[in-house]
Amino acid sequence: MDPAAVKAAFIALQDRVVTALERIDGHTFQRDAWQRAEGGGGETRVLEEGGVLERAGVNFSHVQGARLPASASASRPHIAGRAFEAMGVSLVLHPRSPYCPTVHMNVRFFVATAAGEAPVFWFGGGMDLTPYYGFEEDCVHFHRTCRDALAPFGAERHVRYKQWCDEYFHLRHRGEPRGVGGIFFDDLDEPDFDGSFALARSVGEHFLPAYVPILERRRSLPYGERERDFQAYRRGRYVEFNLVWDRGTLFGLQSGGRTESILVSMPPTVRWRYDWHPEPGSAEARLYDEFLRPRDWV
Amino acid sequence: MDPAAVKAAFIALQDRVVTALERIDGHTFQRDAWQRAEGGGGETRVLEEGGVLERAGVNFSHVQGARLPASASASRPHIAGRAFEAMGVSLVLHPRSPYCPTVHMNVRFFVATAAGEAPVFWFGGGMDLTPYYGFEEDCVHFHRTCRDALAPFGAERHVRYKQWCDEYFHLRHRGEPRGVGGIFFDDLDEPDFDGSFALARSVGEHFLPAYVPILERRRSLPYGERERDFQAYRRGRYVEFNLVWDRGTLFGLQSGGRTESILVSMPPTVRWRYDWHPEPGSAEARLYDEFLRPRDWV
């Protein structure tokens, strides 16, 4: 097990993603290094009011703690209360164009240690896509790239992680998925450190190929106030999911994480409207009818 | 104990508040009656894009359940699992003008019953003010009216409920109060049903006198894009509080409440911006420096 190698890979991933996005956007990300009183810190890289990205955050963090939080040891009672370190890359991109979907990607690594005991580690992560106006070919491309990321790790892997994603990114209070899904995994420690690290790395490396072609294809489509308004309305669902259901966001906010880095996932402009429903047959209704349903996109 | 009398008083309060707001706003609230599969229902009254109110919701609900939720019996283990009924009026007003504060008011009544046992009841509620640009005289007026609402129920009552409000409406992840507070109470059953019902009724009846003069005083002040922008930014804090910390909102969303009625508290337009701070000495900085601090406003 080699946490330093994971850290180096995660930092390299953050850098690669930011560099690629800066090339596409034409603007430079702001860089904010921060430290945490309890141990560790991170670097938040943010772009607001860019050429393509209205708001984008690409976080790296590496924190240590004296006691593993209950939320992290729930499925592993034998390591409750151990010291731990956690590191990860987490990003959310909110493009300005309503034709470009919002996207989220995360890879993370935990190690729990205790004197005289073997360390326990696991990886988690995934990526998922949240369109405002859906395009079949974009969804198929995203999901196929997710499948490719997992292909070297067993044929059933993608099926499981795709379903896990559909289950996780679900707004239970709306009975509605957050978007069209992707892949999600957690508690990964098999077959061994090298194998699970390779899988997490592969997920990270497939993010740009999964998303950039979609951004390039849709960024120049003309749109108007109607589409921006629908985007702002639908972004409300993103806020609701992240603040009500997302375990990572809630754990961060409730445990003294760096608020501005965590909430860089919030969309830039959001609207709520009472009991609104799109007109049947409209482009907006298509999102609900054809995209916000668990489907086999591959 | 007379739940029917509470229900009648709550419905009359909803009606009185809506009628007064319609007179001020010049627009009519939409009326939405709804039923709940598990028992009970409610009426949501909503105004969007009004003359003064950009978004306003005044809810009445009365629901029954077979088992008291854990969150409601936590401080009363002896009634865990009892059947219950809950009723309340809850309102949030988001005026369009950044010079008019957002306001929240709630009164609620619970009864828990079990065969062969005396029913257990309690009241809760309160009101609190969330300015974007603060005015001392508004805060003083609001808090004095809260004090007047509680004055017949003992001199120490206002001190306690004012502090409870400061503690409750606090964004722990920001170390920041939601606004300038007001009053908050829960678990009220003393001295008896009549006494606690009278207190809850008094809080409800003091809502219009507490808030309407502020709305009238500020509604015509001219403002521009800068003030609207700051309002949208600060409204993000309202969203964060309600979705991350507010027990009523979370309980409702997680237990199958009517989502659109619960989330009528969300502001109409909201913005998030990374690590933003107002310029020292600006009108926006004054909000943080002079108003977002627990103070003795009376």
List descriptors.
seven-stranded antiparallel β-sheet; alpha+beta; homodimer; 10 strands; 298 residues; 27% strand; two-stranded antiparallel ribbon
Q: Which residue ranges of chain A are poorly predicted, with pLDDT under 50 across at least 5 consecutive positions? A: none
Oligomeric organization of the protein chains: homodimer
Coarse morphology of chain A = globular
For the residues shown, what is the average pLDDT of chain A? 95
Could you give the count of β-strands of chain A? 10
State which percent range the strand residues of chain A make up: 25-35%
User: Using CB atoms under 8 Å apart, which protein chain pair has the greatest interface?
Assistant: A-B, 35 and 36 residues
Q: Could you give a quick summary of the protein structure above?
A:
Chain A has 298 residues and is of the alpha+beta class.
Structural commentary:
Two copies of one chain form a homodimer. The two termini of chain A are 34 Å apart. The mean pLDDT of chain A is 95. In chain A, β5 and β6 form a beta hairpin. In chain A, the strands form two sheets. In chain A, strands 1-2-3-4-5-6-9 form a seven-stranded antiparallel sheet. In chain A, strands 7-8 form a two-stranded antiparallel sheet. The first copy, chain A, has 298 residues and is of the alpha+beta class. Chain A is 41% helix and 27% strand. The radius of gyration of chain A is 19 Å and the shape is globular. Chain A has ten helices and ten strands. The interface between A and B is large, with 35 and 36 residues. β10 of chain A pairs antiparallel with β10 of chain B.
